[in-house]
Amino acid sequence: MKYLDEFRDGPLAGRLAGEIRATATRPWTLMEVCGGQTHSILRYGLHQLLPPGIELVHGPGCPVCVTPLELIDKALAIAARPGVIFCSFGDMLRVPGSGKDLFRVRAEGGDVRVVYSPLDAVKLAQRHPDREVVFFGIGFETTGPANAMAVRVAKQQEVRNFSMLVSQVLVPPAMEAVLAAPGNRVQAFLAAGHVCAVMGCDAYPPIAQRYRVPIVVTGFEPLDLLSGILRAVRQLERGEARVENAYERAVRWEGNPEARRVLAEVFEATDRSWRGIGVISHSGWRLTAAYREFDAELRFDVGHLQVRESPLCRSGEVLRGTLRPDHCPAFGRECTPRTPLGATMVSSEGACAAYYHYGHFVSAGSVAASH
Question: What is this structure's pTM?
Answer without folding.
Answer: 0.87
